[in-house]
Amino acid sequence: MSLQKQVMDKMKEAMKAKDTIALQALRAVKSAFLLAKTETGVQEELTEEQEVKIIQKQVKQRKDSAAIFIKQDREDLAAPELAELAVLEQFLPEALSEGKIEEVVIANIGNLNASGMQDMGKVMAAVQEELAGQADGKVISTFVRKHLMK
After folding, report:
1. How many CB atoms are located within 10 Å of the residue 135 CB?
2. How far is the C-alpha of 8 from the C-alpha of 29, rounded, in Å?
């Protein structure tokens, strides 16, 4: 079942349960899906990869907003963002452990014969392509930087 269908099903459940926070998060995702569909100009179905990227973008927005609210001591505004974040994360693929991410980074550095920070872009692109949707870019970047500076 596509992610769009799953989102619609969860949206119906949230409506029946009168869960306003979940409903708000799911409506935002649905809206993002529709925007992505119309951006191309053709009414094509989105690929699974595109759907995951859209949800990841929504999750990142919620994390960033919550972090800003917490930093400014606005727990009342951070709580709904974190609740929406929890709703959205259930649609993402299982995240890899940091150990697995580091293994993939090391393997890609070896495969690309990367020797220094000037190769960071190539390594980042290869790792992100391999781990699409399973790891945060900041975590990948940290490991790439760590192993290229040796």
Report:
1. 21
2. 10
